[in-house]
Structure formats: structure tokens, C-alpha cells
Design goal:
Layout: H1 2-24, H2 46-59, H3 62-67, E1 69-76, E2 94-96, H4 97-110, E3 113-116, E4 124-126, E5 136-147, E6 156-168, E7 174-184
Parallel strand pairs: 1-7
Antiparallel strand pairs: 1-2, 3-5, 4-5, 5-6, 6-7
């Protein structure tokens, strides 16, 4: 009788373990791959900062995005986009870091899909308005597509040119201080 209970106990234990394994793993439904998070480049050149900006869009990483921007950052709008963004009754031609963070955070959190192609172009000149001669101006072409929902057939496109002014701090860390939108929406 003892051997019978041992076999029953063993069978129940085997069945219990088999059900536990089966409930956790389904060979017909493999786990989806999660894209590997790519590490940003050291922001020790203007080009690396722009690469990190693209990476921030692709990964929807607001912290990386903000790391690309200086505290005194300004985003300059197309003439047709001028409006009173800060509620002071004045038409704004640009906005600062706080509004840029708000707008970008909303896009990263609410858009269903975002695609930003690598920036194209190699033009880099010294900013003539910087007496230190350290700031650089880089003009780049871009293509950005944003799908609002999964059901969106066509993305909201933006493409064209953007002019970035970047400067290094005392530690040699580059940041974008000015972004001029010259896109075709």
C-alpha cells in the first residue's frame, strides 16, 4: 500500500509541475523580442548630440532628449506657426526649454508610432555671433513621421531643414541652444 501512495504522490507531483510549466510557456506563442535599448553616444561633439537626439525620438526617451538641450534652449517656429504659446498675450516666434519638454513629452507618450530618419548633411560652421568662437551651427535635412493612433493610415509628416546651434560647456559637453525649424509640413 505504501508503494501505491508513493506512486500516486509522485504522479500528482509530476502533474502539478507539468501544469505549472505548461501554464508559463507556450511553444506556439513565443515571446516577442523587445528592441534592445541602444546606448547614447558621448555628447563630446555636435554630431554626437544630433545622433542622440534622433535616438531619443526613436526610443521615446524624454530624459535623453532633454540631455541634448541647453538650459537656455530656444526652438524657433515657422512664421505660420507663430502663436501665443505661453499665454502672455504676445505672439511667440520661439519657445524655451519648458514648453519644448511639454510638447515633446506629450508626443512621446501619446503618439502610436514615431519615425525620425537620421539627419542628412555635413555642413558645420562656427557661429559668428559667439565671441568665444566655440559654438557651431549645423544645418541638417530630416524626415519625421508621427502616427497618432494604430488606425492612422497616413502619418503626420514633417520634412525639410533644421538649423541647430550647439555650444560646449566647460567640461566639453555639447548642447543644443537653438533649433530653427525650416520644415515643410
Amino acid at each position: 500500500m505504501k508503494a501505491y501512495h508513493t506512486r500516486i504522490t509522485g504522479a500528482v507531483l509530476f502533474l502539478f509541475l507539468a501544469l505549472q510549466v505548461a501554464s508559463c510557456w507556450n511553444p506556439f506563442s513565443p515571446q516577442q523580442d523587445k528592441p534592445e535599448k541602444i546606448r547614447p553616444l558621448a555628447p563630446n561633439t555636435p554630431e554626437n548630440v544630433l545622433s542622440n537626439l534622433v535616438l531619443a525620438y526613436r526610443q521615446r526617451d524624454i530624459e535623453l532628449y532633454l540631455d541634448c538641450l541647453a538650459d537656455d534652449f530656444e526652438f524657433y517656429l515657422l512664421d505660420e506657426d507663430w502663436a501665443d504659446f505661453d499665454g502672455d498675450g504676445e505672439t511667440d516666434q520661439f519657445w524655451g526649454l519648458a514648453l519644448e519638454e511639454q510638447f515633446t513629452r506629450n508626443m512621446f507618450e501619446q503618439a502610436w508610432r514615431i519615425e525620425l530618419d537620421d539627419f542628412r548633411g555635413t555642413q558645420s560652421i562656427t557661429d559668428p555671433s559667439d565671441p568665444s568662437g566655440k559654438s557651431k551651427i549645423l544645418k541638417r535635412s530630416f524626415t519625421l513621421r508621427v502616427w497618432e493612433t494604430e488606425e492612422s493610415v497616413d502619418p503626420l509628416p514633417a520634412q525639410g531643414e533644421a538649423t541647430f546651434t550647439l555650444r560646449p560647456n566647460e567640461q566639453g559637453i555639447w548642447k543644443i541652444v537653438k533649433w530653427v525649424d525650416e520644415s515643410e509640413v
